[in-house]
Fold this protein.
Amino acid sequence: MEKSLYQFYQNNAVEFPSGKDTEGKVAWQSPSNIAIVKYWGKHGNQLPNNPSISFTLASARSETFVKYQTKHKEGVSLDFFFEGKPQLAFGEKIKTFLQSILPVFPFLNHLHLTIESKNTFPHSSGIASSASSMSALVMCLMEIEKKISDAQILNETFLRKASYFSRLASGSAARSVFPFASLWGKSANFDDSSNEFALPLEQNLHPVFKTFRDSILIISSGTKPVSSRAGHALMDGNPFAAARYEQANKNTGDLLNALKTGDLEAFIEIAEAEALQLHALMMTSKPSFILMQPESLAAISALRAFRNETGIPVSFTLDAGPNLHVLYPETHSSQVKDFINEELLQYCQNQNWIDDFVGTGPSPIDFIS
Ligand code: PMV
């Protein structure tokens, strides 16, 4: 299956027009996303061991500018700058990725790329930037391809291919290319779902979820003690792996239903169970990792007490780190923000938090050429 879709893209690769020098610039911004059902454990070439569902964020984004120019020596060639400074090590990683997709994007053999990227969130915020930065880069490649081919490409076809190649660069990036929410991974509960690309959930989303806020409490901005690559690999020896994948499949079906019907109670139960299960898996891995801080637990307890007292449908999720993502419908914004300011900021490093919300996905950046 994996081979056949790649083969399809390869068979339809846009040939670089020979004898014609070209140059130009493209720019895209793409958001980070927060998983509600978590992707944790993979196999093969970035294929997930279970389906996952995420909200696409809005404020936490990467902005990537790619200048391209014909060159006459074959091979992938690029300069990479992050926030204005050359980054050789990351540039090498991108080069390896681009070399791996050359059969599908043969223009990469003929163009020198100058890639400049920056994030709208601070490097030290603990927000993973690979989903936003890799999807932004892939959107740029897709646009260069479109410019070279002059073809009319349907939006859906464009985004599916962008999701497929974002996934090859960084698994969870597959989910960043769609507005509002995405499903990535084969689920018996969703037609056409696939391990190879994500699908948009916009048509299957109750309006309340399109207004969701994600207030990200920065409990600690330190670097993670375990990379996500190493974390995924630890699932291979985890004694609870089989039960986890079964749970994730069930939670995916239940969450799809809750997202469609606007069932906030079910949403809260699944979101928190998934977050805590992710951390339980890390605690039970060999070696074991505790990625929460005492402040993460204190904030969780305070949040649950606030929910019980007020009946406001606020919940939390966690990424593979200590920071708490506080999730709630827009209509409860002012009460939840007051609560964050009065009771949760004491648990945040330097009282730091990021005010994010569910957003509309990547978009091209206007620039003056
Ligand atoms: O895309 P990766 O390899 O960085 O893995 C992401 C893993 C989690 O963020 C913990 C969960 C998820 O589904 O995003």
About this structure: The domain at 207-357 is CATH 3.30.70.890 (Alpha-Beta Plaits). The pocket of PMV is lined by residues 35, 38-40, 52, 128, 130, 170-172, 228, 319-320 (CB under 6 Å).
